[in-house]
């Protein structure tokens, strides 16, 4: 694949990551910030909302930038392997940010008319830990990729140049 | 294809299936939560009928409370580790202090685990406390300690907690209602 299609691929994936790591969580937390349940307002605290959105945006930006470099790099190159590994590590931090920003244990105030009559807490820590497990396996896979790209560098290059030469002949 | 790439594809396929399953569980959990908490369906009803209480502090061992409730699990997953907690506070004028200070004491505290409700099942039960099973006798003042010139003599309010685990125990939710007025009593 040439330089331009690679860059285009990088931009497309960056867009996908911006949507999934920043836009969707932002819209979700903004939507649940104030909901009505059985005619009673359930409100997410402003401070908690700001903290969650800040950390999600910070890591979302880093992941999206890494996604650009990862997907715009040539297939099976060391550059791609390195950025893929960095991206996965950032993904782990992103998932972990849900925990330390307070998003794994979201606390809503129940407001009836103007009085706070209680609160609802939703704890999704187990779910986040399970996703962390998946990311751990992905890190192992990316590490394996990187080692594979380094060890078999000559084979990969030979194959790549053979294809390019073949293309040229045609 | 090199054997290392085949191994990679197998691991990748496993991860894809795992991630898709987890996402499916999350989505179904969210959908079920919306179904259970549908305002028109009354699937979680606490109390599900009148609260019957005896707060006669002159006969502590006969003090009692019973709260009927009904939980219908219309969701996709089982509701696990259902726990209901109830605390009752009593406000009175403390005649044993110089200025008959308004005092708030916790006279009842009980938490009960109701296990699981399988999906499609109904849990209809009564949360109850009688005498020393829930009531904290040490905190209940004697009759002479209560300022009888205050109106009302005694005020009762409650804190209520309902918690359960959902979606293969991946989510835990807790609902707390605070300062729910149970009524007043003149001795």
Number of strands of chain A: 4
Total of helices of chain A = 5
What share of the residues of chain B lie within helices? 10-25%
How would you sum up the major sheet of chain B? 4 strands, antiparallel
Structure summary:
The complex is a heterodimer of chains A (170) and B (187). Chain A has 170 residues and is of the alpha+beta class.
Q: Which labels suit this protein?
A:
heterodimer; A: about 170 residues; alpha+beta; four-stranded antiparallel beta sheet; 5 helices; B: about 190 residues; 1 helix; 8 strands; elongated
What this model shows, in words?
Chain A is an alpha+beta fold and 170 residues long. Chain A has one domain (3-169). In chain A, 73% of the residues lie in helices and 15% in strands. In chain A, a hairpin with a 2-residue loop joins strand 1 and strand 2 (40-44). In chain A, helix 1 packs antiparallel against helix 2 and helix 2 packs antiparallel against helix 3. The longest helix of chain B has 34 residues, at 3-36. In chain B, the strands form two sheets. In chain B, strands 1, 2, 3 and 6 form a four-stranded antiparallel beta sheet that branches. The termini of chain B are far apart. The A-B interface holds A 37-39, 110, 116-124, 126-127, 130-131, 134, 137-138, 141, 144-145, 148, 152, 155 and B 2, 4, 8, 11-12, 14-15, 18-19, 22, 26, 37, 39, 160, 167, 169-180. Strand 4 (115-123) of chain A pairs antiparallel with strand 8 (171-185) of chain B.
Please describe the topology of this protein.
The complex is a heterodimer of chains A (170) and B (187).
Chain A: H1 3-32, E1 34-37, E2 40-44, H2 46-72, H3 78-100, E3 105-112, E4 115-123, H4 125-151, H5 153-169
Helix pairs in contact in A: 1-2, 2-3, 3-4
Chain B: H1 3-36, E1 44-45, E2 52-54, E3 64-72, E4 80-93, E5 102-113, E6 122-130, E7 154-166, E8 171-185
Antiparallel strand pairs in B: 1-3, 2-3, 3-6, 4-5, 4-7, 7-8
């Amino acid at each position: 694949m040439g330089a331009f299609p690679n860059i285009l691929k990088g931009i497309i994936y960056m867009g996908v990551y911006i949507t999934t790591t920043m836009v969707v969580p932002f819209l979700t937390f903004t939507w649940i910030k104030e909901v009505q349940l059985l005619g009673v307002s359930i409100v997410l605290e402003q401070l908690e909302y700001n903290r969650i959105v800040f950390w999600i945006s910070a890591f979302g930006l880093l992941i999206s930038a890494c996604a650009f470099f990862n997907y715009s790099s040539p297939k099976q190159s060391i550059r791609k392997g390195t950025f893929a590994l960095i991206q996965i590590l950032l993904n782990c931090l992103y998932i972990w940010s849900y925990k330390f920003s307070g998003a794994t244990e979201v606390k809503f105030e129940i407001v009836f008319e103007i009085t706070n009559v209680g609160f609802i807490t939703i704890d999704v820590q187990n779910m986040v830990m399970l996703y962390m497990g998946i990311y751990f396996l992905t890190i192992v896979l990316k590490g394996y990729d990187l080692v594979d790209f380094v060890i078999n560098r000559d084979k990969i290059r030979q194959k790549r140049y053979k294809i390019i030469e073949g293309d040229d002949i045609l | 294809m090199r054997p290392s790439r085949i191994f990679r594809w197998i691991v990748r396929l496993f991860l894809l299936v795992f991630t898709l399953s987890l996402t499916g569980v999350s989505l179904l959990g969210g959908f079920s939560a919306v179904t259970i908490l549908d305002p028109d369906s009354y699937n979680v009803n606490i109390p599900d009928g009148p609260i019957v209480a005896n707060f006669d502090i002159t006969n502590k061992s006969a003090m009692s409370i019973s709260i009927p409730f009904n939980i219908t699990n219309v969701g996709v997953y089982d509701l696990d580790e259902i726990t209901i907690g109830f605390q009752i506070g009593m406000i009175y004028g403390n005649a044993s202090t110089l200025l008959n200070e308004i005092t708030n004491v916790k006279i009842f505290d009980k938490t009960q685990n109701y296990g699981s409700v399988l999906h499609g099942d109904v849990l209809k039960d009564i949360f109850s406390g009688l005498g020393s099973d829930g009531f904290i006798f040490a905190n209940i003042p004697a009759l002479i300690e209560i300022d009888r010139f205050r109106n009302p003599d005694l005020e009762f309010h409650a804190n209520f907690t309902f918690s359960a685990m959902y979606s293969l125990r991946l989510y835990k939710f807790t609902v707390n209602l605070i300062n729910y007025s149970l009524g007043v009593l003149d001795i």
